[in-house]
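Reopening this ticket.

The earlier resolution said the output was attached, but the attachment link was broken on my side. Pasting everything inline this time so it's all in one place.
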Amino acid sequence: MKATLEFNLPDEEQLFRAAVNSERVHLVIWNFVEFLKYKINKDETLSEEQEKVYQDLADKLFELLDEYNVDPNEIE
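Inline output:
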């Protein structure tokens, strides 16, 4: 199966760049999710307040992923 994306450049330059960079953005999100999981579940040096901040960040990230129909289980 093949898929082809076409853009009318330069009018759709921003959409083109978003498509070209999507894999890197995907990896940034995945790495940030993993960082938050580590901080929340394994970093024993955190205070309760720090842990809550990381949990709030994770909650917001997952809320945004859900809002934009991005399945975090597909980010690998």
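Reporter confirms the inline version is readable. DSSP finds two helices and no strands in the chain. The chain has a mean pLDDT of 92.
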